[in-house]
Amino acid sequence: MSIQEEILNYIPFNDQEKRDKEFIINCINKFDNIFLRENEIVHFTSSGFVVNKNRDKVLMIYHNIYNSWGWTGGHADGDENLLDVAIKEVKEETSIKNLKVLNNGNITSIDTLPVAGHFKKGKYLNAHIHLSVAYIFEADESKNIKIKPDENSNIAWQDINKVVELSTEPHMKLVYKKIIDKLNQNK
Asked: Which domain covers residue 45, as residue numbers?
């Protein structure tokens, strides 16, 4: 099944996801380069919300660009298999090797995420929107983790009840709360 079909079949959790799903489908229909950063207005990213086996901790990175604790993730860069993108990003940003894909590999969250203009590798990037597709994974918290210095300056297993307050990004607080609420519903 293509990512477009997955998004079409995705059942929104709340009104935010309903509205964001409509926006994402509209963007897919308008742009032919939606999976590439060359689309400077809007493009796909994929993230991983990584929990431990007990579901009481989340693996978070301190993201250098956003100056905030957050999930792992990155740009699709032409790859339409967003689950693979999310897995690759978790491994790159944390050095975790063995991930268990939860929720049968289905999308856990869809969001439109505003990105403020910023510098990356000495180049200014204009404000734009990330079409975020996220997945949930389980990892062994006893395994070694390490930062990826060009992207994050810290990495730690955080108490799931503190994840929302650790983020300094108001929009991301809503995303993390939503995912935690979904996890709690499935206990």
From this structure: 3-185
